[in-house]
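Issue 218. Parser rejects a valid record. Input:
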Amino acid sequence: MEGVPVAERTYQRDGEDLVVTMFKPEPYPRPMDADPTMPPYRCNLLFTWPGGELRRYAVGIDAFQALELAQKLAHNELRVMRDSGVAIRLWGEEDLALPTLDLYAQPPSSM
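Output the parser choked on:
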């Protein structure tokens, strides 16, 4: 995965290191963009552990949003691993210390 790493965090995955690396957001021009002079930004994520790796990316309207969405995507990927029976911990705790994108949030009630 190419790019400039800007942040890295080490979790424990079944007792072994799982490193999450976030890369600097970069313009991500696509033919479908309405204004090619203002492309969205893409923020790459790399999850590595002994014997495996996972590559993901988040796209935002600008670099700031791409970083925010990448953190939420990292949280969701770690939850998916945990839900599949893998023990994921940070500093000995179950809290992943990342913002969440609650895919199960209740819609706002109408007044």
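Fixed in the parser; the record now loads. The chain has a mean pLDDT of 87.
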